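Before surveying the methods themselves, it helps to consider a single example record, giving the amino acid sequence and backbone structure tokens:
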Amino acid sequence: MRSQFPEPDDVKRVILESTGGYEREAALWLSQAGYAVAVMNARQGRNFARAMNQQAKTDQVDA
């Protein structure tokens, strides 16, 4: 599965939305693989998008 991802040095940070604990295994795996990982509250993400004047929840906004 690792071959599907860019090298950790090519990625500044992976941000995961907190989803009731489902994100923990992914965060742990990514962290152990050398990626910088942050887990954030969904409300923080919406507030940030709103502050950046991007209120719609679309794939482009999430990417």
